Structure to design on (434 residues):
């Protein structure tokens, strides 16, 4: 199968590389010539475990190519995936679909013969109808179908998620288009990955519903953690106690500083706006978004309290900047709010992250960046663990205590055991634990 992938960002590059690894011929398109030049040199613009090796393998074997020339890629393609960004629109929070619409027009002008146009980008309900209308207006003679095929990739585990998915959602009522999609995903049949066929609008809503529900689980356990701190309970035991109920499940029940990243913040907001437009407001999701925003700011106050109520003139070491481990993604990362709150309170902040410091440097000012965790902790009055990278899970506690000016550790990811930290002489504060 010949596939064109419009957009070579996170979703487009991972999807394109995986499709190529299935044996399809994939051409990834992007308007940024520097990105395409870098990809053609073998340089990967994002950090995702295993992606560089997967891209190199399929480029070497001739199944994966990169170009800035959309017509060339689309003209020979049997399926064209739209994987461009849909950020929150400034001013109102709606998803910005300008890149999707622009891609649709350019695809329409370049198509040659029957083509399945697939929206891989996360888009509000009804976007597929708009894409179909744009293509029809641009090329009344075109023979095509528009399909919704949302992605469910976790940053840091995207390749595994793509190759061993929980489900594949295909939104179309067109039997011919369904056949093309079945051929594209045929290599996954051996894994018994369920293919869920549904209407296009249902598929679009399924993606938003999934992200909103997961964001709700995270926010729920974070509020339970707050209650645990007041009543002397342990949120980790609560999470295990409810997570073993198969109606609830154990995933996304890890208390922390709030959710961030490229999906949950913008997708919950877009769902809220869509629901308001259709006069079917989603009060639960509205509350989730508000509580999560407040929580990230509250984590800064938690650190200040652990430091005796003031951090003015103090140095605070921050371990972890990205919104989660195994990515370099800083979008809506809790660390941004935590660091800003500390700086506003008069603290000097020194930070270390295995992958996120370059991106963070363009989003934060006045932060000193360290070489490693111990360099970060050097002479600091407190250390804060914001992101649970593996490298932070087995620190030499004796060395750490000797490095810090004051043995204060605020663990926003519950990486360490309170009894172990106390035995090693730390003043230790975690989330939702006595």
């Amino acid at each position: 199968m010949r596939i064109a992938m419009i957009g070579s960002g996170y979703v487009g590059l991972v999807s394109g590389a995986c499709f190529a690894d299935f044996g399809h011929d994939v051409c990834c398109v992007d308007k940024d010539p520097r990105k395409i030049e870098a990809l053609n040199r073998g340089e990967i613009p994002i950090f995702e475990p295993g992606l560089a090796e997967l891209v190199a393998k399929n480029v070497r074997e001739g199944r994966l190519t990169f170009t800035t020339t959309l017509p060339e890629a689309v003209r020979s393609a049997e399926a064209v995936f739209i994987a461009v960004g849909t950020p929150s629109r400034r001013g109102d929070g709606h998803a910005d679909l300008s890149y999707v619409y622009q891609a649709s027009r350019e695809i329409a002008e370049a198509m040659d013969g029957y083509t399945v146009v697939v929206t891989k980008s996360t888009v509000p309900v009804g976007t597929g109808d708009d894409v179909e209308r744009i293509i029809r207006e641009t090329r009344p003679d075109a023979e095509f179908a528009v399909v919704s095929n949302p992605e469910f990739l976790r940053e840091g585990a995207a390749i595994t998620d793509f190759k061993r998915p929980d489900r594949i959602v295909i939104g179309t009522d067109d039997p011919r288009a369904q056949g093309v999609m079945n051929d594209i995903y045929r290599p996954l049949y051996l894994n018994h990955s369920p293919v869920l066929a549904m209407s296009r609008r249902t598929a679009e809503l399924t993606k938003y519903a999934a992200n909103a529900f997961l964001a709700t689980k995270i926010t729920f356990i974070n509020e339970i953690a707050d209650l645990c701190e007041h009543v002397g309970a342990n949120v980790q035991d609560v999470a295990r106690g409810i997570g073993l109920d198969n109606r609830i499940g154990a995933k996304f029940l890890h208390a922390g500083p709030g959710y961030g990243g490229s999906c949950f913040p913008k997708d919950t907001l877009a769902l809220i706006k869509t629901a308001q437009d259709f006069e079917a407001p989603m009060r639960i999701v509205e509350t989730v978004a508000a509580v999560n925003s407040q929580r990230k700011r509250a984590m800064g106050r938690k650190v200040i309290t652990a430091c005796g109520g003031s951090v003015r003139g103090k140095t605070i070491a921050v371990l972890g900047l990205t919104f989660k481990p195994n990515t370099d993604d800083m979008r809506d990362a809790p660390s941004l709010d935590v660091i800003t709150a500390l700086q506003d309170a008069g603290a000097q902040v020194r930070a270390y992250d295995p992958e996120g410091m370059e991106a963070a440097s363009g989003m934060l000012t006045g932060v000193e960046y360290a070489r490693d965790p111990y360099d970060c902790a050097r002479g600091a009055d407190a250390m804060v663990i914001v992101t649970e990278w593996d490298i932070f899970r087995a620190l030499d506690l004796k060395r750490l205590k000797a490095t810090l000016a004051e043995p204060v550790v605020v663990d926003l990811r519950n990486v360490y055991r309170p009894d172990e930290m106390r035995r090693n002489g730390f003043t230790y504060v975690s989330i939702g634990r006595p």
